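Box S1 | Example of a co-folding query
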Amino acid sequence: MEKFTKITGVAAPMPLINIDTDMIIPKLFLKTIKRSGLGKNLFDEMRYDDAGAEIPDFVLNKPAYRNAQIIVAGDNFGCGSSREHAPWALLDFGIRVVISTSFADIFYSNCFKNGILPIILPQEDVDKLMDDAERGANAVLNVDLENQTITGPDGGEVSFEVDAFKKHCLINGLDDIGLTMQKSDAIAVFEAQNATSMPWV
Amino acid sequence: MTAKTLYDKIWDAHLVSTDEDGTSLLYIDRHLVHEVTSPQAFEGLRTAGRNVHAPDKTIAVPDHNVPTTLDRLEGEVKNEESRVQLDALEKNALDFGVHYYPVNDIRQGIVHIVGPEQGWTLPGMTVVCGDSHTATHGAFGALAHGIGTSEVEHVLATQTLIQAKSKNMKVEISGKLQNGVTAKDITMHVIGQTGTAGGTGYVIEYCGEAIEALSMEGRMTVCNMAIEGGARAGLIAPDQKTFDYVMGRPHAPKGAQWEAALAYWKTLFSDEEAVFDKVLTIRAEDIEPSVTWGTSPEDVLPISANVPAPEDFTEGKVDAVKRALDYMGLTPGMKLTDIQIDTVFIGSCTNGRIEDFREVAKVVKGKKIKDGMRAMVVPGSGLVRAQAEEEGIAQILIDAGFEWRLAGCSMCLAMNPDQLAPGERCAATSNRNFEGRQGRGGRTHLVSPAMAAAAALTGHLTDIRDL
Ligand code: SF4
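Box S1 (continued) | Returned holo structure for iron/sulfur cluster
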């Protein structure tokens, strides 16, 4: 997994609430057996018309936001399915940070497994960053995971909370499977106990 | 001893270790796998030279993109990308030695229907699957939730999951349901009350007289949509109905093990003194047959209501409602029962079980669906299909004009050829009405099986109580 320490990038505003995983990556694109290549279909139905041409109004099609690395979104971003294709598509497009007041549970944890930092902030902070993001190419935010801060174009700073373990994995690009395998003795003990106490499992 | 909720008890029984910061390693008893969210996970194992840790606890079944038309029995899946995914599942299942039900096995079906049917899902277990509707298995008093593909790989490799504990929420449905009101209406009504983010961070335990009165099928319908309320999982304490359902299933314990299991299962309930972080109480009599009008499962109203206006909502939601009404092609103020329907889809892991089809058969027996209506019934498993045929239900549906399909997810998410065309409007018994969910530009109204049947007959959303 790619390490995440600091990102300085353009933030795109997506104030719509309940942006679901079907919007992020429609099921049409779930037939792949790979993790890469989904960026061109990120937000497919919002981004392209029926003939496949770009819809100029859609935020990521606007010249100022084509290279956005950050999305500032409305409440409950990522609700819907467990598809990890959603963070894969975001990452493949180049998005490394999503900021909202709330995220759906599974999406939130999927982000961390793919080097994307989802940041939960109170409404007033999201509103302020949304304002910043509205400024097009000037909407550059600086996200510093180490210090847990976001700095806006005017120099204003917002700090955010993040689970210590998730932060540690993201900063070091650690694969959880390797970490868990270090606990294989504890797993073996659990399994041995269970084989006696609950043999039907 | 401190009082515990049902969730606390299952959690504690599966803790392998807990770090200082509260991050826990949870043991997973059953891992269900389907073709869409697993190929990258198996690929990851291969690349790292890892094995499946507990192939005996891992069950693979293709469902999301299998065709449901009868020609599937004859041979190859025509859509190449679907075929590649289905072949990958088969190869992975065989290479890694996990349990596998091939496409044309009678036990094949939607993973959340197959698990309980085959006795893989048992009370007190932890069950995960790379699919958000894993919540369904909570109906057995199992802690069951969806995971992403990286977590699928993690469970395959270690049979554990890194988790932080959720909070406890209780949803109590007191009293008795009115006639014509079903499990589906309960679960939709709850989401209407909490919103799609109301359950975020919680595991919901459903209880109360109306929940106890439900069959296992109904309880699965309720837990299935816990995820639509944002909850990590839904749970219902096991009782005699649960035990009766489980007994004799192919993978349920037998003999002395059954007795031991039963004794344990009877301890699985929330202690009287247990504390919930949030409690919601709803009177069953207040629930009407429900229907969604918008593009989020929280856009729920009783069938007797009218389409709302954006001004009826508070700030953040106003734009979303404008967008939803526009997408759905609806005018504020119109009666929900005036909404014309051209397609009816009955099936999915929410309502693709035998009891659902019995309900539909009751409504349509001896009648014909509206001229020009496209209506399909897609069983949740090959065994549900066989049972419906044996009970004569299939024939009643066919005589009424329904298509009678093979088992799979079908038009619930429209990954196979079963899709809505732009502008088509469907009464669906599935669980999501997102934009494009059933086909680009397609419009979905979520309803119970009985309400879907009623709409098929009349050609518009219909109050089942008026039929
Ligand atoms: S029926 Fe629908 S919701 Fe259920 S598993 Fe299949 S696609 Fe998912």
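The first helix of chain B runs from residue 6 to 13. Chain B is about 30% helix and 15% strand.
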